């Protein structure tokens, strides 16, 4: 039976960064903003009286009305910036915020925290205007903290993905776990498809050119058949189809989103 993943290392990193940093940028996935918010980080920031800004990354993957709606909700608790490193959304707003902060102290350290694969490294590279952090669609590519000089007196603290005590299957739905490492990819893909069927079923039609079924497993079978993932005896290779769906979700190919 699957056990929740231990996160002692991540918790110690989060606490250290929250102690060292003057400001925290919490990066979340704009498609699933509430699921990728880290309540532990936010609570620790409040306890330490640190300014926390939520950066809704991958804002280019959701409609503007959706992004604005989410922003309005979260702003009741924290400042929010809509951001996309690919479409150059929100960069000026972040730059202005950093400049404003940099006038207040001689040296400013900004901690960049969030779940694996929410785009922390892409965010840092966009601010730095060159590649200084490793980017990959594979969750968990950043190893250990790194101090990156942004301006004369401004430093960014890049960190590995910070996760709490959660199951691999739940992390996979947040794009924070590599599908190839899942023990039960078919079950996880069914959970994801079920959610998409409830929130935006047309996303599956757009991505795979199939008519989704009300049953997640039947929809997965249709996807496998469409992709010609067939094994001996003409059966659909459901595990291969499941991993494909989960990778497409991680890479932003399935245009679904929800609150």
TrEMBL record:
Family assignment from sequence similarity: Belongs to the TRAFAC class YlqF/YawG GTPase family. MTG1 subfamily.
Species lineage: Bacteria, Pseudomonadati, Aquificota, Aquificia, Aquificales
InterPro entries attached to this UniProt entry: G_CP_dom, GTP-bd, GTP-bd_ortho_bundle_sf, GTPase_MTG1, P-loop_NTPase, TRAFAC_YlqF/YawG_RiboMat
Species this protein is from: Persephonella atlantica
Gene3D superfamilies recorded: 1.10.1580.10, P-loop containing nucleotide triphosphate hydrolases (3.40.50.300)
PANTHER family found in the cross-reference section: GTP-BINDING PROTEIN-RELATED (PTHR11089), GUANINE NUCLEOTIDE-BINDING PROTEIN-LIKE 3 HOMOLOG (PTHR11089:SF30)
Protein's gene: rsgA
Annotated localization: Cytoplasm
Domain CP-type G: 8-165
Organism domain of life: Bacteria
Name this protein carries in UniProt: Ribosome biogenesis GTPase A
Biological role: Required for a late step of 50S ribosomal subunit assembly. Has GTPase activity.
A Pfam family assignment: MMR_HSR1
Record keywords, A-Z: Cytoplasm, GTP-binding, Nucleotide-binding
Principal location class: cytoplasm
SUPFAM superfamilies reported for this sequence: P-loop containing nucleoside triphosphate hydrolases
């Amino acid at each position: 039976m699957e056990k929740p993943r231990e996160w002692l290392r991540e918790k110690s990193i989060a606490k250290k960064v929250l102690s060292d940093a003057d400001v925290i940028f919490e990066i979340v996935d704009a498609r699933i903003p509430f699921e990728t918010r880290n309540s532990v980080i936010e609570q620790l920031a409040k306890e330490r009286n640190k300014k926390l800004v939520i950066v809704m990354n991958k804002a280019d993957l959701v409609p503007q009305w959706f992004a604005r709606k989410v922003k309005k909700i979260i702003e009741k608790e924290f400042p929010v910036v809509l951001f996309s490193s690919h479409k150059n959304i929100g960069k000026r707003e972040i730059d202005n915020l950093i400049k404003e902060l940099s006038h207040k102290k001689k040296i400013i350290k900004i901690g960049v925290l969030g779940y694996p694969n929410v785009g922390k490294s892409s965010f840092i590279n966009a601010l730095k205007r060159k590649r200084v952090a490793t980017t990959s669609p594979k969750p968990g590519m950043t190893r250990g903290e790194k101090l990156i000089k942004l301006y004369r007196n401004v430093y960014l603290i890049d960190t590995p993905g910070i996760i709490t005590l959660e199951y691999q299957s739940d992390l996979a739905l947040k794009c924070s776990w590599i599908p190839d490492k899942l023990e039960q990819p078919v079950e996880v893909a069914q959970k994801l498809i079920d959610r998409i069927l409830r929130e935006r079923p047309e996303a599956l039609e757009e991505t795979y050119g199939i008519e989704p079924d009300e049953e997640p497993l039947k929809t997965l079978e249709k996807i496998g058949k469409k992709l010609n993932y067939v094994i001996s005896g003409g059966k659909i290779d459901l595990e291969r189809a499941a991993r494909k769906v989960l990778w497409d979700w991680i890479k932003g190919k399935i245009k679904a989103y929800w609150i």
